[in-house]
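Reopening this one. Same input as before:
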Amino acid sequence: MAETDRIPVEVAVGVLIERDAHGVETRFLMTSRPPGKVYEGHWEFPGGKVEQGETIEQALRRELTEELGITIGQAHPWQTEVMDYPHAKVRLNFCKVYDWAGELDMREGQQMAWQTLPVDVVPVLPGTVPVLWWLATERGHEGVTHSG
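Same output, byte for byte:
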């Protein structure tokens, strides 16, 4: 099978967003890739692979409990992006999440940071860049979205 013909691995990704008293989206949560994983230390939105028999939402719920120690409310399907990395081709299924229960607990040794545009964490994982553009478009943000 040619490199470009690889079947993408399905990945569920949560864009956890806080809203102000008027319902306007404000900060969003980014986490760093944990030690020992590909792209260690790069910043991304939390999530993980969809296991056989799971829906995107089920995988997202499981992953955010495993990684962050939270239970999410409704997951709002938002955008999809295919990324062809050297180690894997992935289909990133981004869902916005506004409600969760529990204290954020970085259970895999990752770091977390609440961000606004432009983000000040570096380096940013390539699959995260489109999300920052989408957020910028929705928020009317002009200019850079990230460094590097």
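So the earlier flakiness isn't reproducible anymore. For the record, The mean pLDDT is 96.
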